[in-house]
Amino acid sequence: MTPEMVQERREQMLRDGYCVIPEFLRELGQESDRLNDTLEHHPDTKYQGTHLGIHYEDNAIMQRLAEWQPARQASEQMGFDDFTSSKQLLILTKEPYTPALYWHQDWMRWNDPLSCTPWPQTIFLSYYLGETRIENGCLKVIPGSQLKRIPLHDQLVTTHEQGTRFIEENHPIMCSHHPDQVDVLTKAGSLVLGDARVLHAARKNQTDQRRNLLLLWHSRPETVPDYWEGEIPWLFVEDDLEITYPASRIPGQYLPA
Known about the structure:
Blueprint: H1 3-16, E1 18-21, H2 27-38, E2 52-55, H3 60-66, H4 69-77, E3 84-85, E4 88-91, E5 101-104, E6 122-128, E7 139-141, E8 182-184, E9 191-195, E10 200-202, E11 213-219, H5 234-237
Antiparallel strand pairs: 1-9, 2-4, 3-11, 4-11, 5-10, 6-9, 6-11, 7-8, 7-10
């Protein structure tokens, strides 16, 4: 990426909670189809997708994705070189005619003052192996919702296994269209980065074709990033790193209105 593209995408990531980095590939699509056709699917994840956890040590093709140099280079250019990957990825394929994914965010540390940082601490990397459109279940994001509480935060059913996996299809709030939402339309091979705290969802797949997505998670140390030049929240400065806070998926006092 050019320096201007790097700056633009980092600013979008900090402001909106997501950005798109173009690139990518066919062998991953073939391997995703093979795994989708041969592995057992979790019965409670129809909204998310096929939800297959693949450990890199067990799959050389997916390990190559985790080490993919263009993505690593793009992250380094944006100043995200201190993020480290987990040891697996998720295949979240939307099969034909499957329902929408509900509104949610994936941050699990809302009781921790770390939640108030203006920079991302945990990010998701979504590799879309085909073009995404409204018709086949593209990502939806509410820009800025990683930094500011909106009414929807307090209306949502708790995320994933703690509640939302068991809601009805077309839930009037969880599957609603928000006035501030952005449909993230991507070309085949695009990489979308997202802050774990940002509210996001996905439209239903209304086509007779799969929509393949590979999801990776990266986290960084509990420090101020080298690129950060803005104000540092005093709650973060005064936080005792020796304290372990109980995990929570529910935004609390550290997400301001």
